[in-house]
Design a protein that fits this description.
Blueprint (H helix, E strand, L loop, with lengths): L18 E4 L8 H7 L5 E4 L6 H17 L3 E5 L2 H6 L4 E4 L1 H4 L6 E6 L2 H9 L4 E4 L15 H9 L6 E4 L13 E3 L15 H7 L5
Parallel strand pairs: 1-2, 1-8, 2-3, 3-4, 4-5, 5-6, 6-7, 7-8
Length: 206
């Protein structure tokens, strides 16, 4: 189990995917294509905040069989009870959202050392530390940069996933990463991630 995490932990989820696709209005039209081209066993963080609740659930229902076909894990932005109702395998969000509910994979969003402490108390199985770089999701927000990201990630008691302006090129040296646009190019059909990128991702963060 130790090889799956940055530090030894007990009673955690099995090895997490190294690569996570994050859903958004910007990549909705290509989600099925991207899911089919991701390495088997990747992850999908389903957000889709732009949709009304009924439409949001219906869109997830359409994506679930596609994700399962390729062995991807699906995590819903919401609390654990909602994720269970919607048949997702885990939940994603701020620590206070994840603190209650049934046992399942929990991915907590972290932007600071204070939020990292909250994530540890919320039973998080992994943390998405962001933004590493400037990102379209938060125009004008300053990125942590690789050095500050690593300093924060090294304090995590669970695996850290890099999010924010990530691309396959920038991801070299990060153990795990997630992206919206970085995995969903608009100008051309999404390209599969090379195995060499994933091999690089498996190295511990420096």
């Amino acid at each position: 189990m130790g090889r799956c995490y940055s530090v030894p932990v007990k009673n955690r989820q099995p090895c997490l995917p190294r690569l996570w696709l994050v859903s958004d209005a910007r990549n909705d039209a290509v989600l099925e294509t991207v899911l089919a081209r991701l390495p088997r066993g990747s992850g999908l963080i389903y957000r889709h905040y732009h949709l009304a609740p009924g439409a949001r659930r219906a869109r997830l229902r359409a994506l679930l069989p596609v994700a399962r076909r390729y062995g991807h894990r699906v995590v819903l932005s919401g609390d654990a009870r909602q994720a269970r109702r919607w048949q997702a395998q885990g939940c994603y969000g701020a620590a206070e959202t994840l603190a209650r509910g049934p046992r399942m994979l929990r991915l907590a969003t972290v932007h600071s050392l204070r939020e990292l402490g909250r994530a540890h108390r919320s039973r998080a199985d992994a943390v998405l530390v962001s933004p590493v770089f400037a990102t379209a999701s938060h125009p004008g927000a300053e990125g942590l940069g690789p050095v500050r990201w690593r300093l924060l990630a090294q304090r995590a008691q669970v695996p850290a996933i890099a999010l924010g302006g990530m691309t396959a090129r920038r991801a070299r040296g990060f153990p795990r990463w997630a992206a919206i646009d970085g995995l969903s190019p608009k100008s051309r059909p999404p390209q599969p991630c090379s195995r060499s990128i994933l091999d690089a991702d498996s190295r511990p963060a420096a």
